[in-house]
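We close this part of the discussion by returning to an individual protein. The amino acid sequence and the backbone structure tokens for this protein are reproduced below:
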Amino acid sequence: MTKIEYIEDALLGEKYKPGQLFNFRIAIPCVDVESFGLLIEHDGQNDANVNSLLKLAEEGKAPYCVSIGVSCGYLTTPDGNTRSMRMNSYDFFDREYGDFIVYELIPYVINKYGVKISDSPDMHLISGGSSGGISSFVVAWFHSDYFHRVYMSSPSFLAMGRGNEIPYLIRKYETKPFRIYEEWSENEPNDYFGWSRGVDEVSKESLVFAKYDFNYAYFSGEGHCSRYHDENEAYKRNEWIWHDWQTRPIKALGNSDRVDKVIPFGSVWEKCGTFPCESACAGPLALTKDYKNVVLSNDAQMWYASGENEDIIYSYVNNGHYENQKRNLHTVLHTIPRISHKGILDMAVDRTDRLYALTEIGIQCVRSFGLVDVILDLPDYSAPVKIAVDDALYVQTEIGIYKRRLCQECITDGDEKRKQISYYD
């Protein structure tokens, strides 16, 4: 078998995870290749994955991969003791840990040790078990331009750092270009922050619902992360994860049927020169003095109103009486920790009375029933500014103006304006 060079090192977080020290171990196959694939592993290096990937590479079924096994961060306290930051590293549904991995750790390894890692996200796998499993998904979620392959063993999509919301967001967002393998067992923990087996089954159904390139294994009579260090099982899962790696690019296979009601599959953001003219209907003064965003429903029977600092949209009957005691809670938006604006930056309504709420985590689409059913990705990573629906969906950000094709019924006025919507419209 090909020899492997092992290197032990540590890195102190600077811009991301500042002050936390991350120990890690690098495994570099001793082969001459133009570039390596990459495996990022949580909770240190998993030899089952390292060895099985090496065997698959020797058989031509996977690329030779550099493995970086990262332990969770820890802080040193003034008394000289250390405090584990495992939950802070792995369980929060935000992008900071992924930013540390992509923008600090990987460049550090490349620059210090001169390893040649492929630039292609198809050549990058991220892996972990339990909290490391949810972290693998979250890192890929926020860095889908860097990781396209994900393995998670008994992932903890639980109520520790808002991870319990992820399976439902998977159903509502557009499908990302991932190939995902998940494992879990019968005897998973059932604790105050959730039931692992139940949420693993929920996440599996969500990935199927959203039409991900996905496979899984369930182990009856076994426990938490039971096959994570099993080399034979690692060979099987990595063989599937890397199947056709030289000839088949990883891409989204489709969106959920619900997302298909808003955008045709294959619709992408395109830069354009102009933003549609502002609507002449500015809203009644009684509302605009209290709310930044006020729009009229498509049937002109309701006003929708929102502010910047609330993750809520209110509705008012369009009858001239706009006192706060007469307002209704229309919907509650999705949000994530530590974003600048929890609320809405702008709103627009389409011909089916679907409300498009521009937020920092995406464009949240709200049926007139009051339910967020779809979340569209933003066109770039700069701050979003405003939104409009005309012959297409338009978004302006700090760095550009974009438009995107919508389904025809969203932009075409039919014979009757829809007034009542139920769950399943």
User: Anything to note?
Assistant: The first helix runs from residue 47 to 58. DSSP finds nine helices and 24 strands in the chain. The chain has a mean pLDDT of 93.
